[in-house]
Amino acid sequence: MRRFTAVILLLTTFSSSLWAAETLSVGDQRGNARAILAAAGELNNTPYTLEWHEFANAAPLLEAMRAGSIDAGSVGDAPLTFAVAAGLDAKGILATRYAGNAIIVKKGSALQSVRDLAGKRIATVKGSSGHNLALQALQKAGLDAKQVDFVFTTPAEATLVLDQGGVDAVATWEPYVSFATQQSGAQMLADGKDYPALTYLVASNNALASKRAELADFVRRLTRARAWGEKHQEAYATAISKLLRIPQEVALAKVKREINTVDVDKQQVLAVQQNTADFYVRNGLIPQPLKAEKFIDLSLSEQK
């Protein structure tokens, strides 16, 4: 009996050491996944090492993934489309509904609707979720994208240029939207809640092949954390406030606007993603049509 127990203990220790030897390198944007995982207690006792990398927006995160520097990361459906069209070998493995995008203008701006943007300058990140929202809002308002002047920059620079009067509007996402509205009195011309969008946990195909068990565990933890965040918005906002060093009221506004509800309806996710891909083709942002099912794989999300 003692020998059997010793063997079991040895095997358990060996298995744990194998997990611990693995490192999952994860990219994040402004505390997106890391904050909710930490606040929900889901970063405790991971059977592998988590290595975090912070990025200002999706483009450099996805470029790091393409270079093999990270295994996974959180990005929106629009930048994922843009990156896959440029050759990124990766898949979205966990989808969440997202409403944190917006078009904002300065406090007191004469612009009162999206139609008023005709002939104006809009700052955004090219190919980003903000860019996608701007194009959709312009179309809905009956304007052609050529009727506005897009100024492509970083998200932080975009809101700074807006404050300085260098552009008339900014198409961006959280926490930049809530920071501008809460701290500077910026106003929203278009709200992301009216334009269906998704964010993903994206993993490189190489990581899916070599670190599938780790990714499956991370997906389960992030799914539980997202559910926790919906029920504990104040605590989640406190974690974001500390991590990003932003005011609590900004963090809470961010949490309330974003939604971030996990979507396990595969057909619904594919429909939204396909619409984004088709929209980008029509607007000349990507050269060739893409099939959503080629770069969306929710099989790990479906595992219990």
3D architecture notes:
By secondary structure, the protein is of the alpha/beta class. It is 48% helix and 20% strand. It has 13 helices and 11 strands. It has helices spanning 2-21, 32-39, 58-66, 77-85, 129-140, 155-164, 176-184, 205-210, 212-231, 233-244, 248-258, 266-282, 299-302; strands at 23-29, 49-55, 72-76, 90-98, 102-105, 121-124, 149-152, 169-172, 187-191, 197-204, 259-262. The strands form 2 sheets. The protein has a 6-stranded mixed beta sheet with strand order 2-1-3-10-4-11, with helices on both faces. The chain has a 5-stranded mixed beta sheet with strand order 7-6-8-5-9, with helices on both faces. Strand 6 (121-124), helix 5 (129-140) and strand 7 (149-152) form a beta-alpha-beta unit. The chain is globular and about 55 Å long. It starts with a helix and ends with a helix. Residues 4-20 have low confidence and may be disordered.
Major sheet strand order = 2-1-3-10-4-11
Total beta-strand segments: 11
DSSP helical segment count:
13
Ranges where pLDDT stays below 50 over 5 or more residues in a row are 4-20
Query: How far is it from the N-terminal to the C-terminal residue, by CA?
Result: 34 Å
> Which class best fits the helix and strand makeup?
alpha/beta
